[in-house]
Amino acid sequence: MTMTDLSAARPDAADPLLTIEDLSVAYSRGLGRKPFVAVPQLNLSVGRGETVSIVGESGSGKSTIGSAILGLQPAASGSMILDGIDLRAVSRRDRKRLQSTLQAVFQDPFSSLDPSRTVGDAVSEPLRVAFPRMPRAEVAERTAAILARVGLNRAAMTKYPAEFSGGQRQRISIARALVLEPKIVVCDEAVSALDVSVQAQVLNLLAELQREVGTSYVFISHNMAVVRHISDRVVVLYRGRVMEEGLAEDVCDRPAHPYTRSLLASVPVPDVAQQRERRLARASAVTQSGIEPRDGVGCPFADRCPFAQPKCVATTPPLVDVGNGRKVACVRIDEIPPADDVPGLDEVPAAVSDATGAP
Questions:
Q1: What is the pTM of this model?
Q2: Do the strands 233-238 and 51-55 form a parallel or antiparallel pair, or are they unpaired?
Q3: Is residue 1 assigned to a domain?
Q4: Between 356 and 226, where is the model more confident?
Q5: Under the phi-then-psi rule, with left for phi > 0, alpha for psi from -120 to 50, and beta for the rest, what region is 59?
């Protein structure tokens, strides 16, 4: 099964559904120790009916951003405005009122589903919480309808999560997240634990439901091949800072920042020779450059960047608009060779949509 490419129809992002400004998220490291700032001053917007992917390697801070949006991790500063609602001002008790606006799909569907409750109970729970007076018959009908939408029949309502495969459980999690038809869904590594063919099915399902309902997605992933085929825009994150952002086809097909190129070099491709070139390019990109950024100053990728120079650590590079909605945080953006001249980093091949997608 192939993955649907969403780049043909872009939503109008002029009226953002979610606006994040100067968001900082920090973790306490104990008494007497300075908190660890996982995300410093992030700016991000998500339009209505738009998919924005946050991509980066483990430890980049992408899941921290998702947790802050969902209220699972408090923000140290900044603002998060969702459809006119200040998420930082919403108490844990009042967050129940946001269920019809904000939902989530996590990486492990089994851990997010109570094994002692039937699928029908799990999927209908948001309905019963949001509408406690809704008749049981209507709850059952809406539950069966959303399960049918994700490819499961009414009989699934009486079964338990352990009776389903990983892909089917993720479909159940998606049904639970979408039963209230929320305006935005945070998908945190929602397909990374699935087999390649099942990944494609789930991605196509998310795309289909977006076309039908108009749901926006914040799609968190480490896999550039996956985000290329589901995203409208891509935000590349490294150590909590945005290295590059722009339209999916621009960022993934013509990467500007050396870190983005490094991520693309790690994408598996069917061609063995090309994969060898990508591995060599990846190895060169992670070699220590000998240039060490100071704490909180300079480009955080400088110590790994093959193009790093002393000026890269003199000041923190700003996120600069380079045209067509693309922004890049690199002081040497006009000096380093374009991606087309770097072997194995030119693009994510179309074959990836058919054959790969696994990390």
A1: 0.83
A2: parallel
A3: yes
A4: 226
A5: left
